[in-house]
Amino acid sequence: MAIFGKNEESAAPAKKPAARKTAAKTAAKPAAKTVAKAASMKDLYSDGAAKSAKTSEAKPKYDQAYRWIEKPLVTEKASVLNAMNQYVFAVAKDANKVEVAKAIEAIYGVKPIAVNMIRVSGKKVRHGRLQGKRKDWKKAVITLPAGKSIQVYEGV
Question: Is 50 among the domain residues?
Answer without folding.
Answer: yes
